[in-house]
Amino acid sequence: MSEPTPVAPVVAHPSARLFAEILVPTDFSDHATQALRLAIALARTHGARITLVHVGVAALAMYEIEPYSVPMSATLVAMHEEMAKEQKHVLDRIARDEIPDDVPWRTIALEGFPPEEIVRCAEGQKCDLIVMSTHGRSGLSRAFLGSVTERVMRASTVPVLVTR
Question: What mean pLDDT is predicted for residues 139-159?
Answer without folding.
Answer: 78
